[in-house]
Amino acid sequence: MKPLFDTLCIVGLGQMGGSLARAARDAGVARHVVGITHRAATAREAVRKRFVEEADTHFERLVREADVVVLATPVQTILTLIPALSPRLRPGALLTDLGSTKASVVRALDDAAERGGWITEGRRARRIRVCGSHPMCGNEVAGLAGADPKMFRGSTWVLTPGAGTDAVATRVLTSIVKRLGARPLRLEATQHDKIVAATSHVPFVWASALARAAAHDRNLSLMRRLVASGFRDTTRLASGDATLYRDILLTNTAPVRAQIRRVTSILAALDTALERGDGVRLEALFREAARARASLVGG
């Protein structure tokens, strides 16, 4: 299959960046796939295991030679990298990201496009092109060890164009997403952040809280013998990357706090029903929850 462009550079070779690198090579997205990571050992491993053709701990040369640069780091790092990397991009290059929150990232990308100025390509065009994105997939294994090139297949990949995004940027990013077997979905950044606060970010918060609450019991050895699939499934997200989720929550504070208050009010209603011994109310709340889940995920 013909490559979509010459060089793809992925900044951050953890779970998501490593997955993208291998998937892009397997799908022939670009003629060359290169990577940047702050750990020399990770760079060597990524080349040895053929995630990328070349990897470096410094971004100047590889970024400058790339047609598309993808930032695959925690969100706070993405916000630092955008102004640092954007002046080094070649004219016409596309800068995008895999960040789990989008409003702050899209603002930073728009600022970068504005500061980059304009070039002439038969018509007026941005010197660099930008578009935010977020593939809705992943797992709980941090780092390159968690990389899975198949994770994008069949998943939704959200595109969040901003004021600085042109039609070429959207078209190139859409073509990458489709080549990887994912389904592109265009959303406004704030709409994305509000939805994922409910479906992704707060579930992590509650999984973490449940795991911590259960671990307060003094008889942990006995509890381990009684842990079954319900607890494992419900707390699975608590095993996620703490740094990643720290940045997610700190860059999506208002939607996450609103959803936490919503969940807290539901817990309060359950607690009240328990206090009153109101079995009818408890059953009604549980049935309502089952209907809500079915409307979201089916089954």
Would you kindly provide a written description of the structure presented here, covering whatever features stand out?
- This protein has 299 residues and is α/β, with parallel strands linked by helices.
- It folds into two domains: 5-187, Rossmann fold (3-Layer(aba) Sandwich), CATH 3.40.50; 191-297, 6-phosphogluconate dehydrogenase C-terminal fold (Orthogonal Bundle).
- The chain contains twelve helices and eleven strands.
- The chain has helices at 15-27, 40-48, 60-64, 75-85, 103-116, 167-179, 189-215, 220-226, 229-234, 242-250, 253-276, 279-297, and strands at residues 5-11, 30-36, 54-56, 68-71, 94-97, 118-120, 124-126, 129-130, 132-135, 156-160, 183-186.
- The protein is globular, with a radius of gyration of 22 Å.
Put the structure in a nutshell:
This protein has about 300 residues and is an alpha/beta fold. It has helices at about 15-25, 40-50, 60-65, 75-85, 105-115, 165-180, 190-215, 220-225, 230-235, 240-250, 255-275, 280-295, and strands spanning about 5-10, 30-35, 55, 70, 95, 120, 125, 130, 130-135, 155-160, 185.
